[in-house]
Structure formats: C-alpha cells, structure tokens
C-alpha cells in the first residue's frame, strides 16, 4: 500500500475513509507534530489514492487483511497507535482486535460502526448554513461532492474540503470500490473478538452526520472503558474539517493519555 510518512518516534497508523485517500487526514498532522514524538504513517487503502487493488481485494475483510499485513511489516513487535476515519475507523477497530495490547491507543473520527447503511441510526441530512454565492462558483462535480457533505457552507470549509477530500474522490479505482462495496461488512465485528480494550480511546462523531450517525458510535464506547466520546455540533461526516480546532483539542488530549499509557508494560 502507498503511504506517506512524517516525523519519527512512536508509530501511529492513520487510516482514511471510503473513496478518499490519505489527504483527507493530512490536515491533522500539526496536532501530532506538536505533541511528543510520533512517526505518522498515512496510508492509502487498496483501490484508493495511489494504492492498487487486484481482484483479491473483494471486500472489507480483504482490505483489513491488507492493512494488518502492512502493520506487521512496518511495526513488527513495536507498539503503535491507530487513528481511523469512517470506513477506516472500522478497519482501525479490526486492528485493535488483531493486535490487542500492541495497539497503544485508538482514535476514531466518525467511524463506521454499523456496516449496513439501512440498519444505521441516522439524523436527517441538515445544512445549518448555506452559501449560495460560494456554491455558484463551483463546478457541477465539485458542487455535488461538497453539497453532499457540507453542514456549514463557507469559503474556509470549502478550501479544507477541496484540499482534503477531492484528491481521493478523483483518484479511486471504481472497479475495486464496487467489489468492496458488495462486501462492505467485516465477517466478524471487531468487538466480538474481545471483552474490552483498556487502552486510551477517543470517539468523535458529528451531530449532523447523516452518513454514519452518532448514536451507534456512542454505543460502541462500552467496549472501550478508557474512551472519551464527543458528539460535535456543527459537524457532519467530515467532523475534523467542520470543527478542526475542537477535533485538534480532543486529539491532543488523547495523545497525552497515550503517552502516559506507553509507560505501562505491554
């Protein structure tokens, strides 16, 4: 898998969502760069960004296996943290189940908890503030993609979306995405593989997230007793783009807890 690495120190594997690529989460990098010593590894999932995907990548299980293999090659027996967004959040949860105490901490940004879209508890799609003048300046394709996700339309929010989301939305392998979509759920829910995970955790959800919701994410916290759970208003499925300062503060506090947890034996 293609990856971009920054910094040195304790590894943290950073996993984006569906049909985007590593650019979606690169804007978080100053949080890690300014908080201890972290080797940040931003991956492109198979079939997305610059990562190819052969016919063997035929569903979420195959994607998860590819990420597990990447982590084993990259980290060996070294302890590492993981951050996952949306579909990448489901894969991050799988890593916790697979690696156990080798995972120092788990951060989830608007994670997929219920793979079946029809079974999710979702709020209605809401736009809290529209900006017709901005929308009129966008190309039809850009406008469609931005309208689908933007809860608060603004020039600054659009620029963050353009930089973070559009590169992946314009680059994914449509055949691979179709195969994965047909088998979008993991065969076994990660939390069914362990009773609880005691590592520091963070679960961030968007109050206006009409894609994965926020209630299922709150229920997930029972499997992670050390989890901070935050539901952010004025935030949709790209909560870290809609509420960047608040997301950064929550991630910074999580990193502090992970630093403390690093001192405990594995």
Tell me the total number of β-strands. Answer: 7
- Termini gap: 28 Å
Which sequence of strands runs across the widest sheet? 1-3-2-4-5-6-7
Number of helices: 12
Task: Name the beta content range.
Answer: 15-25%
Helix content: 25-40%
Helix/strand-derived category reads alpha/beta
Radius of gyration over alpha carbons? 17 Å
Low-confidence stretches: none
Q: What shape does the CA trace take?
A: globular
Q: Looking at the chains present, what oligomeric state does this protein adopt? A: single chain
The overall pLDDT, averaged over residues, is: 96
SSE order, one letter for each helix or strand: EEHHEHEHEHHHHHEHEHH
Largest sheet: 7 strands, mixed
Describe what you observe in this structure.
The chain is of the alpha/beta class. The chain has twelve helices and seven strands. It has helices spanning 23-26, 29-33, 60-75, 87-99, 132-137, 140-149, 155-164, 166-169, 174-182, 215-220, 239-242, 244-261; strands at 3-6, 10-15, 38-43, 80-85, 103-109, 201-206, 227-232. Helix 3 (60-75) packs across helix 4. The chain starts with a strand and ends in a 5-residue tail after the last helix.
């Amino acid at each position: 898998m293609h990856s971009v690495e920054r910094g040195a120190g304790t590894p943290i594997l950073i996993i984006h969502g569906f049909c985007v690529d590593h650019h979606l989460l690169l804007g978080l990098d100053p949080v890690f760069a300014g908080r201890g010593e972290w080797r940040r590894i931003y991956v492109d999932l198979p079939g997305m960004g610059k990562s190819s995907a052969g016919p063997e990548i035929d569903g979420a299980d195959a994607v998860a296996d590819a990420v597990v293999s990447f982590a084993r090659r990259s980290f060996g027996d070294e302890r590492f943290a993981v951050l996952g967004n949306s579909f990448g959040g489901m894969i991050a949860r799988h890593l916790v189940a697979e690696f156990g105490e080798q995972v120092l901490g788990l951060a989830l940004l608007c994670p997929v908890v219920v793979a079946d879209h029809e079974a999710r508890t979702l709020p209605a799609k809401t736009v809290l503030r529209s900006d017709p003048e901005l929308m009129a300046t966008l190309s039809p394709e850009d406008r469609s993609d931005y309208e689908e996700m933007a809860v608060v339309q603004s020039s600054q929010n659009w620029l963050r979306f353009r930089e973070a989301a559009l590169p992946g939305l314009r680059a994914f392998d449509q055949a691979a995405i179709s195969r994965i979509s047909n088998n979008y759920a993991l065969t076994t829910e990660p939390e069914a593989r362990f009773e609880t995970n005691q590592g520091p955790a963070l679960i961030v959800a968007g109050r206006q997230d009409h894609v994965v919701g926020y209630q299922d994410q709150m229920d997930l916290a029972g499997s992670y007793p050390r989890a901070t759970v935050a539901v952010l208003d004025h935030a949709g499925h790209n909560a870290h783009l809609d509420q960047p300062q608040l997301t950064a503060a929550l991630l910074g506090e999580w990193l502090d807890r992970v630093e403390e947890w690093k001192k405990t034996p594995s």
